[in-house]
Write a structure and sequence with these properties.
This protein has 327 residues and is α/β, with parallel strands linked by helices. Helix content is 35%, strand content 16%. It contains 13 helices and twelve strands. Strand 10 (228-232), helix 11 (241-250) and strand 11 form a beta-alpha-beta unit.
Length: 327
């Protein structure tokens, strides 16, 4: 089945190669890095497809305004910024690029684990201020420590392989992955109740859905070892931010590295208390922000769109979220 895709609106700084590949195949593309909601509602009506990263919220109102929309494409893995249900109701296909940025997100996670455990950020800041404070920033080795990975998809598995090489004991949870599969990437599968008291580091790589919203909360922190360290390069909303702040202040959580937030960019004063907390490393959603990842997601999304218009042009498989073609 071929879709009539003649024009595509590309937002959120998706790689230039996306538009180039579309143009090479006779599909007109407009690439706009920043756009307000009002501008989007005004302009989306003339496009057959919309490509976004995580910044643009593709709401029911946007979908209603997109009178010609046939496809919404997420240049990345998560689709929580897209009203998938509304898209399906309107017969709009939602596609994504689930594995294209996995290595970048994995490397960011591993880097944050090491940065957190060695107090690199505050040590750099102190030295820049002229303070030589070696003893204050004595860290710990990760060798022999237990890392719990929640979500064992592409990113979680890559993290497991790399941190196992650092000598960490890897345990993990994912209802869709078997214990036998876990062995192939050096991970022992456990249930959540088994994980909490063992984990010294917890890293999150699950999608944000209703069952995982505020998944890490005060109850979880109470069941963990005192001083547990939390890393989130997955999705904002997985951690209850108020509970995290309370746990940081009490010392129950010994440190956190947070790349994603429930609101981006954040304006909530509570979120800013977390960002500025001395035990927190906070970054502005950089997990997939590498040149390599942006080239991969741009290419993968563009090739899927071309295939929808001209089936069989590329070998790239269709990563179909709404499954409208299977009805």
């Amino acid at each position: 089945m071929a879709l009539n895709i003649g024009s595509v609106l590309i937002l959120d700084g998706v790689g230039q190669n996306c538009g180039e590949i579309l143009a090479q195949n006779g599909i007109y593309a407009t690439n706009t890095v920043k756009i307000t909601e009002e501008e989007l509602l005004r302009t989306v009506s003339v496009y057959d497809a919309l490509v976004v990263r995580s910044a643009t919220q593709v709401t029911k109102e946007v979908l209603d305004a997109g009178k010609e929309l046939k496809v919404v494409a997420r240049a990345g893995a998560g689709v929580d910024n897209i009203d998938v249900g509304a898209a399906a109701d309107k017969g709009i296909c939602v596609i994504n690029a689930p594995g294209a940025n996995a290595l970048s997100a994995c490397e960011m996670t591993c880097g944050l684990i090491m940065t957190l455990t060695r107090h690199i950020v505050p040590a750099v800041s102190a030295l820049r201020d002229g303070r030589w404070e070696r003893s204050k920033y004595t860290g710990t080795e990760v060798n022999g420590r237990t890392l719990a990975i929640l979500g064992l998809g592409r990113v979680g598995r890559e993290v497991a392989v790399r941190m196992h090489a650092f000598g960490m004991k890897i345990i993990g949870y994912d209802p869709f992955v078997t214990a036998e599969q876990c062995k192939s990437f050096h991970c022992t599968k456990m249930e959540l109740d088994e994980i909490w008291p063992l984990a010294e580091y917890i890293t999150l790589h699950t999608p944000l859905i209703e069952s995982t919203r505020n998944f890490i909360n005060a109850d979880v922190f109470k069941r963990c070892k005192k001083g547990v360290k939390i890393i989130n390069v997955g999705r904002g909303g997985l951690i209850n931010e108020k509970d995290l702040l309370d746990a940081l202040n009490s010392g129950q959580v010994g440190g956190a590295a947070i790349d994603v937030f429930e609101q981006e960019p954040p304006t909530d004063p509570l979120t800013w208390q977390i960002i500025k907390h001395p035990s927190v490393i906070a970054t502005p959603h950089l997990g997939a922000s590498t040149k390599e990842a942006q080239l991969r997601v741009g290419q993968e999304i563009a090739e899927q769109l071309v295939n929808l218009a001209k089936p069989g042009t590329y070998a790239t498989p269709l990563a179909e979220v709404t499954s409208i073609f299977k009805k």
